[in-house]
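#help-structures
NK: newbie question, is this the right format to request a structure? protein is LysR family transcriptional regulator
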Amino acid sequence: MQLGGKAPSFNQIRYFVAVAKYLNFRQAAGALGISQPTLTSQINALEDTLNLTLLERSRTGTLLSPQGKALLASAEEVLQSTQRFSEMARDLSKGEVITYRLGIPPTLGPYLLPFVLPDLHRLKPGLRFYVREASPDDLQHGLLRGEYDIILSPLSSDNSQLITSPLFKEPLKFVTPSDHFLSGKAFVHPEDISGEKILTLEDKHHFHHQVQRICEDIGADLQRDYEGTSLDTLRQMVVMGMGVAFLPGLYIHSELHKPEALHVCEIADMPIERQHSLAWRNTSPSRKTFREMSIIIRRIIEERLADAVTMCD
């Protein structure tokens, strides 16, 4: 990507990819951690260097020009190649503490990592993790773009660019207010909650769509007018009698210290669970380390959380 002896800078290419992702200069600048005028100036400089218009700007928004669309894949390859170069150089540096960027969903991370990371650090003291939370879709896309080194997610993938190592299956529990007519039962039948008002998280969460499928299967009424912003909020909505809900087993194991306010049970003859896996790029120079890490994490989870989850075969 060079014209007349002058080449665009790495940052200019990175800025172009960010604007192409968000199609909004303000949002892209925020994600990049720079000012909007700086971003605009650098994009203009990139277009001048290439003698091309990459973006169509109007009062209604920003779009990729045909030239921008044609160059986007190559720009992303530049970023990925640079990321792989940095990863390899980092791993080749002997005796240095290695920090990996770990992505995990907000409905899993706070309720799993406190049980796993202390033991993992004790067994592998050279490992460090920069943990960031995002939805499973964003985690997978970010992993492919090099924003994460490794992710732990319930989203299964057959993407040939990723290596996936299944870890465990987490049950989803059915919870009701303590004064609900189903309270006190260890198991309820699907027909018992047909027509019940089921509360869940906002639809930006993968968990929302999982609960939506469950409701469709059993004929329950998913409440779209009242959606929780977090699992804690969702629990409080149930306590206040606004409806019933499904909650992840690890959340209940970690956070439900006063169960008298809620009743927890399961759906009879209908095990509901989500599988969590560790995933990394098949081109990662750390892939051997990640495979070893997945074995260690499985062992830790099996020892620490055997009463809350089921290990994958």
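mod (FA): yep, format's fine, and the tokens are attached above. The chain is about 45% helix and 25% strand.
NK: thank you!
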